[in-house]
Specification:
By secondary structure, the chain is an alpha+beta fold. The chain has ten helices and eight strands. It has an eight-stranded mixed β-sheet with strand order 1-7-6-5-2-3-4-8, sandwiched between helices. The chain is rod-shaped.
């Protein structure tokens, strides 16, 4: 009904405009309005515009139809479904961990988990981790057992690395072992800096296994890197996965859980004494 009314009004305006043109040609308009030059021009312009609108009205109606269809669609829901089903939970692929928003998420996360052979950027995020522990967030760190055979294999894989972070500490033949020990030193400083009642929020375990990936987790958001030859995992591409219940999120969470279960607890405040006593032949716990 509305469309018919619109068409009727526009058509009427067109006919009026045409009538004005005809009346002007016959000289009738001058009798009605002798000084009506401006009115003539106005009517002629109005007639032209109205005619154009009348011809384009159907296209405008198509835009109305599209708008109505878009209102019915749940764009956000469709995007969420596509993210979960078609992209397995991946929201972004970053060039390196430094390109991610991981540090920003650290400031508000309730649960933080880091899995790596060692954490090369631990010094950079130590202050944020200390703040997280101090506010009561659960912080879990999984590091490779430095005396593991896997550590030697990873050393060999990194031997050609040009990244100075790999060779820091002056013990270039064993960057993994040195890296783990440096991490434990930093974690000890964090534990001693927070109130004693909060120290239990910082949990550290060493695992003796072949890790499938490096994971930096804040709540249900995961930044996942790959172990490649000649490059640190954090220097390579990072998959940002949102949701522990997505396809990739489920697998990453399961890997974290598995390594956490097989890992050995170590008290960061007393790590130097405990490190030598750790044995992976004992019952896991």
């Amino acid at each position: 009904m509305r469309r018919r009314a619109e068409r009727l009004v526009l058509a009427t305006m067109v006919f009026v405009g045409i009538g004005v043109v005809v009346a002007d040609a016959l000289g009738l308009l001058d009798k009605i309005a002798p000084s009506g030059t401006i009115a003539k021009v106005t009517l002629l312009v109005l007639c032209t515009v109205t005619l154009f609108l009348l011809l384009e009205l159907e296209r405008l109606y198509m835009l109305d139809d599209i708008q109505r269809q878009l209102k019915v669609l749940d764009i956000k829901g469709i995007a969420e479904q596509r993210r979960r089903e078609h992209y397995a939970g991946v929201t972004c692929v970053h060039r390196t961990l430094a390109d991610t928003a991981f540090a920003e998420h650290l400031r508000t996360a309730h649960e933080i988990t880091i899995l790596n052979t060692w954490v090369p950027n631990l010094k950079d995020i130590a202050q944020a981790l200390e703040a997280a522990v101090a506010r009561g967030a659960r912080v879990r760190i999984l590091l490779l057992f430095p005396n593991s055979d896997v550590a030697s294999l990873r050393d060999e894989a990194l031997r050609t690395a040009s990244d100075p972070t790999v060779q820091k500490g002056g013990r270039g033949d064993e960057p993994v072992k040195q890296g783990v020990q440096d991490n434990l030193d930093i974690l000890e400083d964090i534990a001693l800096a927070v109130p004693a009642a909060r120290r239990a929020c910082l949990e550290v375990r060493l695992y003796n296994s072949l890790p499938a990936m490096a994971v930096y987790r804040t709540d249900d958001r995961y930044f996942v890197g790959m172990f490649v030859h000649g490059k640190l995992a954090i220097r390579g591409p990072q998959l940002e996965i949102d949701g522990a219940d997505t396809v990739l999120g489920t697998h990453v969470h399961a890997e974290l859980t598995t390594l956490w279960m097989i890992g050995r607890r170590i008290n960061p405040v007393d790590w130097q004494r405990q490190l030598g006593a750790i044995s992976f032949s004992e019952t896991r716990g």
